[in-house]
Amino acid sequence: MSQAVDDHCHRPTLERLPKSLPVVASPAAAKAAEKLGFTSVQSVAHGEEVTVCGGRLRVRATAGALVGPPWSTRENGYVLSETVPGGIKLYYEPHCDFKSGSVEEVGQVDVVVTPPTSQVVLGFPLVKGATENSKLLPSLRPKVIIPLFNASFPQSGPLANLIKEQGSLEELEAFLADTPELRGCRGESVRLTLALAGVDSPTQEGAAEPGGSGGCWESPFVASSSCPLYEDEHVQVADGASAAARHLGRKYNLYGSTLRENALVDFVLDAVDDIRRKYLVLAYGWQLLGVVKEAAKDVYFRDVINPATSDQTQQGGTDFQRLSKLISDNSSRQGWAVGETPSIADVMLYDIVDLHCRMFGCKAFSQAYPDLMAFRGRFAALPRIHAYLEAEGCSRDVSTYGDTVPGT
Questions:
Q1: Phi and psi dihedrals of 150, rounded to 5?
Q2: How far apart are CA 312 and CA 45, in angstroms?
Q3: Which end of the chain is more exposed for a tag (fewer CB within 10 A), N or C?
Q4: Rounded distance between C-alpha atoms, residue 181 and residue 187, angstroms
Q5: What is the pLDDT of residues 171-186, one digit of tens each?
């Protein structure tokens, strides 16, 4: 419980909850919880922390919203840190009201829950998202931002017309796009495609593509665009890597030279999409399901990668086998996925093979698919691709929560 005021400490709701539930609260909210009959209440002052959930979660209080006169004690913001391996660190303060020193002590977090807008009553800001996120987010440098729309409900009464909203989600997204330290390092397939085509890739500093106003970044806004965004003079593509790949393949003549080759490119992109969907479940789903990560990786290897078992589990795990056969069948024509020259199909195939090589180790993947590993080496050795991979830039992390395995 972050605050004791009624919209944060809603008594009709709290009265219906089991009084044995553990409560972590600001000092003022703790008194309210005790009056309602809760029997396990921990009051946490600014800078203090407690451990809950059998030691699996650490809760630290930060200086949050000032809801009274300037001399009153601020309410709480919170940092929730999972103590399990690969655990997430999350910051939450519902008013985007904070003391800089209290937040700076937190360090970098994985997730920030914050309002993107401000609510102002007669010139007094109750919620400060429109003005204070520009200070909060560079300090915490989150990978993911969850926007809290705490005024998006019907309002009536004499004060309703006095509450004015300032700012917008779009304005916050524009700020993120213009702030290099808050951009992600993904959109890798787009960068690889531009490198293969001999086009200068947009950098984290926002360099534009020649002839266009484009950039390549990943917005951390899960509510609006959680996939890479590519923009040029023709389109703005934010529908995942496959949509951007198809557009760039056509734009730079990397889509094959015949109708048959066009169809084979589509086949490869569809197969890579199938694998990527399964991989996302592995990368982000194991924690949600309460599964040990190594056990989840073992199941994934069995169902998706291992050619001896993947076609027996009925989990659609034959994509790598089909891609391997395609490379093997085309070995007499330079060993590319489609045709005699690299195409967008090779970019996407390299990206997914390299991802799995680093997740499971290149030795294990090579034993399963030696021809795909040989393909990976050929593609990485292309002069433009080699120059891109050797240049300084984003690290090729496996995932936000995965392990980075050297691609040697």
A1: -90, 15
A2: 56
A3: C
A4: 16
A5: 888 777 666 455 444 5
